[in-house]
Design goal:
The chain is α+β, with helices and mostly antiparallel strands. The protein contains one helix and ten strands. Strand 5 and strand 6 form a beta hairpin.
Length: 187
């Protein structure tokens, strides 16, 4: 009886810790620290090379890519920006500054994402504008909020639903470290 009670306590503690990390990440978003792409603000991208693929409605930035928007910074070796092809190109909308047309952003190779107190590292990051979902994947995808962190092989941030899902590949387990100093209620 005592062992099952300890297991229940342990499961409850783990659940509480996961809830705290998710709450910290979501509270940061609600306090005005935007942590993902916003179609209302300009997106500035620098790279060693840019290749436009009009037939795919995509522009690829290659080599030392830095994408910035407000307080967000995305660093990677490659960033592909996919456009909504249904909207007609005009002199005004053909400019890459027209961020309302962006459908998806895909970053690969040594991906680092920073927005406010939130940092993420992954092999690949995919952000879809319609559903506001950011998916980080890789052997050790990691999401940090302050000094607290969580790792897995797939981290999905559902911005519209205020939810985070961290998954493993079955070989490497999800890991987390929660620092009580990172509690947003104390700030």
């Amino acid at each position: 009886m005592r062992i099952s009670t300890c297991r229940k306590c342990m499961a409850g503690a783990i659940g509480l810790l996961v809830f705290l990390l998710v709450s910290m990440a979501l509270a940061e978003e609600k306090t005005g620290s935007e942590s993902a792409y916003s179609p209302e603000k300009p997106l500035h991208i620098t790279a060693d090379k840019m290749v436009a693929h009009q037939d795919e409605s995509m522009v690829e930035f290659i080599g030392n890519v830095n994408a910035t928007q407000d307080n967000m910074l995305l660093v990677a070796e490659s960033v592909k920006v996919f456009w909504h092809p249904s909207q007609p190109d005009t002199a005004d909308t053909a400019d890459t500054a027209d961020t309302n047309r962006i459908r998806q952003i895909v970053a690969t190779d040594n991906v680092e994402y920073t927005a406010g107190d939130r940092h993420a590292f992954a092999d690949k990051a995919v952000y879809t504008t319609a559903d506001e979902i950011l998916i980080l994947t890789g052997k050790k995808a990691k999401l940090l909020t302050g000094t607290s962190w969580v790792t897995g092989t797939k981290i999905t941030l559902f911005r519209k639903q205020d939810r985070v899902l961290v998954e493993s590949d079955g070989k490497t387990r999800v890991q987390a470290l929660f620092n009580p100093e990172d509690n947003p209620a104390d700030q």
